[in-house]
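This week, study the protein below.
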Amino acid sequence: MKDILGILLLMVGSFGAGIIVAGRISNKAVLKLIMRYGGIDGGHHKMWVLDQIVRLLTGDKYKDWVREYCDGEDGPCTYSWDIGIAP
């Protein structure tokens, strides 16, 4: 989480102070992450962006979120979560 937040702090520049508002990641910070990396070609890079956003939004509950995402009609491994590849 700290590495992702550090990258995000470097990315957002002048409005970096608005990244964490009332203990939560701001919408502006998430949108900046999407703006910076979301247009990079390759589904694997876009999946990395989604994974980074999930990590930012879930914090310490990331593994719980992934576990819930993977649960489905056929049990706990119905679906898989791909962390992608950093651009």
